[in-house]
Design brief:
mainly alpha, 5 helices, AmpG_permease/AT-1, transport
Length: 87
């Protein structure tokens, strides 16, 4: 029986870099590009300032990260594991 090979440090770093880039692109778009485009289109500063709602997922990430990591624990249920063996 072959055991699973642990990922190398380089592959983990590359994967994390891709993940942070993937989450950073929409954040950069919402905070840097979109306000400029909307101002050029004639939107008021008050309407553009309302775009802070688009940033809430990133601002509140600290609060919901625990739920995303282990939703069963938050709801009071311990995660159960089952092991199957065959001979």
């Amino acid at each position: 029986m072959r055991s699973a090979k642990a990922p190398s440090s380089l592959s983990v770093i590359v994967a994390l870099a891709f993940l942070y880039t993937a989450q950073g692109i929409p954040f950069g778009f919402a905070t840097e590009y979109l306000p400029v485009v909307l101002r050029e289109e004639g939107y008021s500063y008050a309407k553009i300032a309302a775009l802070f709602w688009l940033q809430l997922p990133w601002q509140l990430k600290v609060l919901w990260a625990k739920v995303a990591d282990d939703p069963a624990r938050v709801h009071g249920r311990a995660r159960s594991s089952s092991f199957c063996s065959s001979r």
